Amino acid sequence: MKKTEFTEIDALFVGAHPDDVELGAGGTVANLAREGKKVVMVDFTRGELGTRGSGERRLKEASKAAQILGVQERINLGLPDGFLKSDDETIKKAIHVIRKYRPKIVVLNPEYERHPDHEAAHRIIRSAMFKSGLLRIETKENGRLQEPFRTRKIISYQQAYAFTRKPDLIVDISDTFETKMKAIKAYTSQVYVPGISDPNGPVTRLSRPEFLEELEARAIYFGTLIGCRYAEPFISIEPVGLKSLSGII
Ligand SMILES: [Zn+2]
């Protein structure tokens, strides 16, 4: 993957762990990449506490998945898996990322989640998105002060509680569903890939063969709501504005 040369990107997709973005919004990422949009992914941790695999292996899997989705760059902040905290130091790291890439939209973990890291990632980014616009919070890139930056466009993909709240936006991923599944299967330490996954490893929710079927069923369900084959749901933090209704007709 080539290094990002530009400073302004279209979308920044954030995950507490490698695979969060693929599972929640992989089709949407691939849609944007196909449209030629500049997309960067940032993971807070390496997922080293996961029952299967290791932090090092998951980093390699994440890099492969990013290539499959077609994003410009994927970075990992190397923060502690399982103990992600919305503290000053972590928020400042997130401010640095936001000011570096200056995304038009940020897509992140949901506010309410079963895994505490997912909720922490949400709080970190929400705080960083406001504070990245404050001139007096100083962060540096290559020894130079970064310019303040703020965008109000922020949406959450959905994870464990996808069915407990009505989505605000649903994105048609019929054309990229296969790409999404291919990216997810790059995590051979986590999900069931015949012939590659360790059949004797500990069984987790993700490592069961049924998990991939559940993912497809979920995509079909949300697709049904908007009359397409496969879709991904999102929650918008702020109202989504349209210049004209022609944007949705
Ligand atoms: Zn996660």
What binds here, in terms of ligands, is: zinc ion
For the record, the CATH architecture stands as 3-Layer(aba) Sandwich
> Largest sheet at a glance?
7 strands, mixed
Radius of gyration, whole Å: 18 Å
**Name of the top-level CATH class:** Alpha Beta
Which structural class do you get from the secondary structure elements?
Answer: alpha/beta
**Tally of contiguous helical segments:** 6
State the separation between the terminal residues, measured CA to CA. 36 Å
Number of β-strand runs: 9
CATH homologous superfamily descriptor? LmbE-like
pLDDT < 50 runs, ≥5 residues: 1-6
Helix and strand run:
EHEHEHEHEEEEHHE
Q: Round the mean pLDDT to the nearest integer and report it.
A: 92
Please, how many domains? 1
Share of helical residues: 25-40%
From the spread of the alpha carbons, the general shape counts as globular
β-sheet strand percentage: 15-25%
CATH topology: Rossmann fold
Largest sheet, spatial ordering of strands: 3-2-1-4-7-9-8
